[in-house]
Amino acid sequence: MSLTYLDAIREAQAHALRDDPRVFIYGQDVGDFGGAFKATKNLAKEFPGRVLDSPISEDAMVGLAVGAAIEGMRPIIEMQFADFSTVGFNQIVNQAATLFWRTGVSCPITVRLPFGGTSGGGPFHSQCIEAIYAHYPGVIVLTPATVEDAYSMLLEAVALDDPVVFCEHKFLYRHLKAEKLPSEALPIGKARIAREGRDLTVVTYSAMVHEALEAATELSGEGWEIEVVDLRSVKPLDTDTIMASVARTGKLLCVGEAWPWGGVTAEIIARVASEGYGLLDAAPQRLNAKDTPVPYHPNLWTAHRPTAVSVAEAARKILRQ
Amino acid sequence: MLQPVTEPQLAAFRLMLRARLLDDKFAALYRAGKIHGGVFLGRGQEALSVSVGLSLRKGDVFAPLIRDAAGRLAFGETILDAVRTYLGSSLGPMRGRDGNVHRGRPRDGLLPMISHLGAMISVVNGMLFAHRLKKISGTVGAACLGDGATSTGAFHEALNQAAVEKLPLLMVVADNQFAYSTPTSRQFACDELVDKAAGYGVGAHSVDATDLTACLKVVGTAAARARAGEGPQLIVAKLLRLCGHGEHDDASYIPPEMKNSTLGRDCLKVAEEYLLQQKWTDAATLATWRSEAIREIEDAVAQAQREPGPDPFAEKWNAIASEHLNETHPQ
Q: Which residue of A71, A153, A268, B253 lies most exposed, with the fewest beta carbons within 10 A?
């Protein structure tokens, strides 16, 4: 049997629905149709009355989830694309994210964001907007890079007492496969060393982990050993694991598919520069998408976001210093 | 000697009076520089607001807006909760983390509004939706708005959502002619806001908000229909705001002829005259109610003023419930 990243997300939701009567799923086309990406396939049939189509109203979808959470439920909201979550942005960052701090009443909602670029997606079906959510206090932002993490982190997200923005990468949905679902996993908040190395630390997350691993394989042929850190969660950020890796390698490259201004890569560089300056043998660098909307045509798209080729090139520049 | 009467207007009036006196106290404290941040009064809106609060029961949901002191008291909020929040007491429900009208107790069904208008409606929907999933029946939820909030996307999304799910939602719009300074002519172009109900497929109710008896009847009817499973009910109440948007605003944009029209009547005075005219009460009783309310308010203010404000060194600077996931940053 082999399971995809998308299967893992479906299985995690089935598991949560089966184990916890407080869980329900609400989103556009998630009911009988099974979701735009089939992440809720057959769940409406298996769990009658608990997997429900919503109107195209991202604001009201999240607001409803917050109200249900106050009443003790554990809603999962599916945004059809991460890009559309900006319509529900206010409810996520101002309603859900402030509730616990203002009132002491927790807000356990999980908002699933199918995000990131796929060829042909274009400007409004490709965005990586994890950083704007991570910017707000009161939100946990997860970015699983593997089938195993997609499963275990989604289950843990539903169990957490806080609003979770769960960024699941569309490019990984069908590309990644695993033999079985994990029975144990690293907890949320811990980064993972995806590949060990001594010459350079590449810190990245989600689909870019795989580009970084491919770059590392290529660079090993040139005699360089690259360490790849998979953040898993961008908020909280596992600064300890990053710092320990930089202590071993002395060099840092941060890679993100999101836009360059601010964001996760900038945050990591800021932390390493201020808290681990003495660990660095070279100026820390970062590689992001270009500062334009995400292009539609594959010729432009592959040049817009970082790839194994551009990661390897950025790494060489640091390694040659 | 008065005969004992149990007309609902009496209990409602007493709550309106308490709300008005509480608002007056907040205005006085504001002018004396005793309140940090804004002060928002419900002057002129008490008849509508109290009717909403009285139409709700324990187990229902209430999302008041900025002019709902009367409805809050009717729903069960204490004067002390209100005073502690305005004065920033660390013993209040918001512990100095939020202030003034941004107060509530979500577990008791009283939602603390965020400032983004229309945003509380879908949260009420969610609580009602959860009641359905938990097989709790017979509850309703009320969300209060002004005319300005009907222009938001959140209003549209949430009213449509409630209609699709046929939730027992009371959408109460206080059409007080101005959203801050903007007149309704710059807010919407339909003849009457209540006409929008047909477009959403929800019940429609209009009422003169200066008339307590009418408010109790119309809001009560709407609540009963929602409770009976007839789906969302839109109530549009007409009135004039008898104060500024907040106490910082002199409301000089309100034309005098509007203030002198029937729309500009003070619902509290109208109700008082009516109760006396009906001989349901007398001036001496009203004077007693007034002095009792003043005493209660003064006691609450005196108590809250003696209480400690929040201590930044003892504060848990933690926005998430999962403490093990809290990030700490060098200061």
A: B253
